[in-house]
Amino acid sequence: MKKIRVTGYLVLALAFWGGVDSSSTYGQRPKRPFTVAEDIGLTLFNVQGGGSPELHFSPDGKFFAVWTERGRLDLNQVEDSLRFYRTQDIEDYLKSGGEQPPKPAWVVTLSGKQNPVIDKWRWAGDSSGVAFLQSKREGADAGQQLVLADLRKKKIEPLMPSAEDVRVFDVRDREHFVYVVANHSRGERTLEAESRTGSFVATGKDIGSLLFPDLPIVSRWSGPSTKELWAVVDGKRFEVKHNGTPPDFEERSISLSSDGKSVGTLAPVDDVPPSWTKLYLPPPFLAYGGGSYKPQHAIQAGHGTAKQYVRIDLKSGAAQAFVDAPSMGSVGIITGEGPPAWSSDGQTVLLPGTFLKAQESEQARPCVALVNLRTNSSACVVTPKEGYTQNTDPVDNYHEPVDPIVDARFGANDSRQVLVTFDTEDGTPGRTTSYEQGDDGAWRATGETIGAVEDGPDGLAIKIKESYKEPPLLVAARKEVSKVVWNPNSQLENTELAEVSIYKWKDAEGREWEGGLYKPVGYQPGRRYPLVIQTHGFAESQFLPSGLMSTAFAAQELAGAGILVLQTAYGNRNCPISTPSEAPCSVGLIAAAANQLVGEGLADPERIGIIGFSRTCYYVMEALTTNPIPFKAASITDGVMGDYFQYLLSPNGEYEEVIGAKPFGEGLEKWLKRSPGFRLDKVGTPLLVNAASRGGALEMWLPYSGLRSLQKPVDLIVLNSSEHVLTNPAARAASQGGSVDWFRFWLQGYEDPDPAKAEQYKRWRGLHELQAANEKERGAHETAAH
Length: 786
Description:
22% helix, 38 strands, eight-stranded mixed β-sheet, globular
């Protein structure tokens, strides 16, 4: 991986924020080991697995709010909080010589079964409070209700009936807001009718909705539902329709106008003109995932074959295009289609990813565009890199070959300043570039910040300061002065964290990689340690002690138990995803890292384990069936494995691209050669298989059933959660704690004396005996062969 290129703006930002002194916070000698329970109880400013922290000033600048989440293992609940601070209190704190930070003006704390509890929160346009979606008691999969946390009353109040299931919303004040409801009544009626007949038609149903129709996640997300747009205008609630028909639009892209009487959104074009097929061409050099994923495609004439940004009048339901041109997503660009942003006077709209109307002689390029509704004119603010020319600029985590737009919004100078946030390769908070319009009308970049920074009035800035080895702090700053406002994890003062460092290596093809190396607590140079390799990427800019995800991974916990842990890079930049080379390339980077750690005398070659999660389950199964290094133990959780059974459960082109053919006729030969599921006889490593819910057990069934039939050591655990990235405390304890127990058992011969785990170890001792017998038999065969 190439070294990060630091721009001038970034140098200033790092110098500025680096001035925060947190040595007093974590200077004491830590005492207790870091455990799964401690990991679950950490307060984070981002969702599990990374992502951008959420902190926002109110529209009038008098307050700011910040969201946090932690697990309560004692209650088996996820606890979300919104902390409201007065801007004046923060300014006084920065001016004074005192060290006592101000207390929040109000803290909203809600609990639920899993994330999200407080979801999609945003300030009301009148700064009276924050609106958000509150998950129902059973969790977000059972539905969400729109509520307002009224800052003046210090009270949470519903904005709509509790029976409705709200997906997205936008709000100006109590009298003006919109929301999208998923109406599941049609699906419920269909299910009821099916239960009363002697048979029903299953053709066209997916296996999940057929076998598990009553699961909330299935009924809410997979079952048939009707999308409804509801509005409250001048206090009157009604469903938005045009001539009796609900409008068709992208629900994730709605934005309420400043007067609360219309919404901006994306909508399919009723009749795409033939001229668009030649005027708005796809980018020839657009590629993701190591250059192999090329989603661009030409626009086709006809109904609904392209999208454009439109303005829907809430009273009439009529839609009018902002510009007579398609959105960038219409040609396959997969970012930059967020909601429009409105200026404070409602006369200017910012579109985060659209073409502007082109003439026949022009080569149209998509851009972040401003539309002046008063003059009916439009102009580009910035034309991002989206593959229309070959990019030769240096790339790093913050500057990719293409510019993935996350958000575009107006700045403090309203319609003369635009802030555009771009995504990162690893999904952590990216860069935000400020563009300002000069007196000549031209737009120019005037600055860039890296990470989660929220700019407030008069140069005040709020930031989350953290890194892979620094727990997060809420920090306020103005000019050269910066202070810690809140340290949410002061308990870590008495916790012994493993030393973490950036580790770099090259694979056999000379590709450069880097990850996070967690050295065992009490590390002694010259001693070899058991090694666990955790896959799926590493985030340098965020404190994620599990290594990355809260499912299966437990880096700090394993290091606290005397195990060396490498959180590896994710191969999506340099490995060609969705091709037959994806898994071999990813296994190559894993094997190269393990061999280097062995060669440097850090890792014991006889005690190496590996953890796969989500897509990297495929890489682990590839590694176990090709045996580039002798793994002592392995685990896979809730993931893709490129096997025949998963293909049959959900036939799709991705599996065909990964293997190189359909698994029928001559294509079956490629599956027999390339799919790990057909090579389970080559596996010599004990495997822990974890499924997310009973339905998820179907997805993970083949390696478990196949290895069990081959008399190879395998254990299947079903987590009582439908979450992919786990937040429910009990499920996390089972998943992360299970990883610690599994690898300590196989790599260290250790058994937790907890009586509640007696049956677990009895089962694993049986697997150990089976593994010993298999190794003895394999050794005998090898001796006979020689």
